[in-house]
Amino acid sequence: MNPDRRALADAVMALLVSIAPEVEPDTLDPTRPLRRQVDLDSMNWLDLMVGLKQRFGVEIPESDYARLVSLNDVLDHLQARLAPPGQPPTTSKGRA
Questions:
Q1: Cβ neighbours for 32, distance < 8 A, ≥ 6 positions apart
Q2: What was the pLDDT predicted at 96?
Q3: Is 91 domain-assigned?
Q4: CATH number of the domain bearing residue 24
Q5: Count of domains for the chain
Q6: I want to staple 91 with a disulfide (CB 3.0 to 4.6 A). Which of 29, 56, 71, 76 is the partner?
């Protein structure tokens, strides 16, 4: 994981822990569905999406929620929205 992605992951995890204090970030698999690993209900998930918008200033349309399944999906989505114009974002699969 590159340093920018690591910092982004740390910020997402801090937000997740603020919503679900029982989360142990070191035990999460970034490729597996977050809601199954953490047992987030729909309200917690909505709180996470709103928190991401507030923290990063990134619009996350409700229509995108279904694609944001794993931590990697969330990070990819954020990186794509935070990438400077004209620069392809780095994703969990390499360059987009």
A1: 70
A2: 47
A3: no
A4: 1.10.1200.10
A5: 1
A6: 76
Residue 93 lies in a domain: no
Structural domain boundaries enclosing 46: 3-84
65 inside domain: yes
| pLDDT on residue 74 | 96
Query: What's the distance, CA 31 to chain centroid?
Result: 11
**10-residue stretch averages of pLDDT, the chain, 96 residues long:** 84 95 93 91 93 92 93 94 70 54
Q: What is the pTM of this model?
A: 0.83
Domain assignment of residue 96, yes or no: no
